[in-house]
Design goal:
The protein is of the alpha+beta class. The chain contains 7 helices and 14 strands. The strands form 2 sheets. Strands 1, 9, 10, 11, 12, 13 and 14 form a 7-stranded mixed β-sheet that branches. Strands 2, 3, 4, 5, 6, 7 and 8 form a 7-stranded mixed β-sheet that branches.
Length: 265
């Protein structure tokens, strides 16, 4: 189901033996636009320390109860590799984190989560050895593609023929943990109107200039279906959105990829 990420903030994260804290923000991958980690504020439990929780650990998300259950213990989280969530998360940090929890690298395959489409398929029960963690850190020197949702919110959106608004939020698939749309506030041009734009329609992002360049005209965005945050994003709405922009839907592409994956096995 598709959900606005405003629903994520404040969600209680519950381990198998008690509450860990509440979600503050998330980190997404600028290559695939997948949500790789939730940043969890542990409050007084760990002295105010923030920790990262991977969607790979999620076993149930109860949006009505505002709670996410994870297949972790409080002790596991307490002893997890320290990461300063106020700084960029490097690939070395990720390697240490994933190695500690025994999770495979999501960058090791062609699909959204490496060898699969959903993070739940990647969870592993075993915890990696300290030697494996050390080897992981030594071998992973490439740059990370992670960016925090908080840092990117507010970026200016540039259409092919000029500025059109700013990034005001995200709409996420809570099964694949993928950003399906960015929320564009166009109130500087059309008071009150918000629209959705797929990451697949974005040509580039300038992290230095805090700008997102969309391969769409201002007129197309202006006339796009209005997005109302309080209303669910239905498949009917998505069909209308993709038809308006003349772009194929992501679920068709992923169905083709899944068929290809099935044939290769």
């Amino acid at each position: 189901m598709l959900r606005n990420t405003s629903e994520l903030k404040g969600l209680v994260i519950r381990a198998t033996d008690g509450e860990l804290g509440v979600v503050d923000q998330f980190y997404f991958d600028d290559d695939s636009w997948a949500v790789r980690y939730l940043t969890v504020d542990t409050g007084g439990w760990l002295g105010g320390r923030q920790v990262l929780i991977s969607p790979m650990s999620v076993i149930n998300a109860n949006w009505q109860a505002r709670r996410v259950d994870v297949a972790l213990t409080k002790k596991q989280v307490e002893n997890s590799p320290g990461i300063d969530t106020h700084l960029p998360v490097s690939r070395q940090h990720e390697a240490a984190y994933l190695g500690y929890y025994g999770y495979p690298y999501y960058w090791g395959g062609p699909y959204l989560w490496g060898p699969t489409f959903n993070p739940s398929s990647l969870a592993a029960p075993a915890v990696a050895s300290m030697q494996a963690i050390s080897d992981s850190v030594e071998s992973e020197w490439t740059d990370s593609h992670l960016h925090s949702s908080e840092a990117v919110t507010g970026y200016h959106i540039e259409a092919v023929d000029g500025e059109i608004g700013h990034l005001d939020g995200f709409v996420v698939d809570d099964e694949a943990w993928a950003i399906r749309y960015i929320e564009v506030a166009t109130r500087n041009w059309w008071p009150g109107k918000k629209v959705l734009v797929s990451p697949g329609w974005i040509d580039s992002v300038s992290w230095a200039e805090s700008k997102v360049y969309a391969g769409l005209s201002r007129e197309a965005i202006k006339n796009g279906p209005e997005y109302i945050e309080s209303m669910p994003v239905t498949r009917e709405y998505e069909d209308h959105l993709h038809f308006h922009y003349g772009r194929p839907p992501y679920w068709r592409r992923e169905a083709d990829q899944a068929a290809s994956l099935s044939l290769s096995r």
